[in-house]
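Troubleshooting log. The previous structure file for this entry was overwritten by mistake, so regenerating from the original sequence record. Sequence copied from the archived sheet and checked twice against the printout by T.R.
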Amino acid sequence: MDIDEPFVSAVQKAVTPREADVLVARTAILAALADATEPVLLTDFEDRWLAAVGVRRPNERSTFTGQPAAEGRLLAPPDPSDPHLTVFRGRHAIRQAVAQLLAEGILARSAGNQYDHQPELIPITIPGMGTTVPVTVHSPDIGSGSGSVPRYMAVRPSPTDGSDTLLPVDELLADLDEILGVRGKELVRESRHALQRGLYLASSSLLAAASEAAWFNLARMVPSPPSALTKKVEEGREVAAVIQLTSAVMRERRITSTVRITEVVAQAHNLRDVRNYALHPVEPHDADRETWKTEVGATLLTISARRYFVKLSELGNRLSESA
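Regenerated output below.
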């Protein structure tokens, strides 16, 4: 069976890194470096990227399988989410991100390769004999030789604390059961599935819906809530009113700084705006808000979700303690 040009073009598109892929690669690399005690293998960066996008490496002996088309073309268009194609795309996304970080002076090539780093020997003399002391000092490679799989190390402090990265969905949801609830967690998972399948409008909208679930759960944590808040929670509508009334209680009871409350309220309203604009197409076209319907925009919303939900969870704990 011949491979036709449309199929080749579709495979090319599926394995070419997009801007969001490189963004995820950068955060994966920086997170790996922040956790590392020694230089990191290039393949470990790739594994981080695959974990972030929710893909497992296929068996080494397996290959991508083309499917015959029902009619017309000789082969059906490939599934862009096929693990074989995703691994290939991730490898090149990591390479592009490594090149950027090298150019920015955040990353440097380290001595060593895929094999365990061998210590250097320091000669010493002790009474009655001479011997050596093995030492391991990690320093940038300045052209003294390298292996086929390089290692890298940070040469200045990483501009991330590991929170703002595209985490695997189970890590994103860790310890958020109470603030998100069963339905909120389901929305986050569906949002990630949509992101992985290129459904960016759906991904952003579902994440915004999860935010609404979190605010209703936060309101339920208010001890002796005002009657107006109780009514809105029971009705299960008007999340804007729930946000306003709950944040007013938090300010009144001074459970945290006004700045922190203002910060989470602003993010909540931004997510509401994203969802309203995406699902209620009655407003004029807005280029700024269209961003959240793109791959990069949806990815950025997903990256920031963990920090946002953790803040809401912490506020819920403080509300419960304020009784």
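The two ends are 72 Å apart (CA to CA). Archived copy saved in two places this time.
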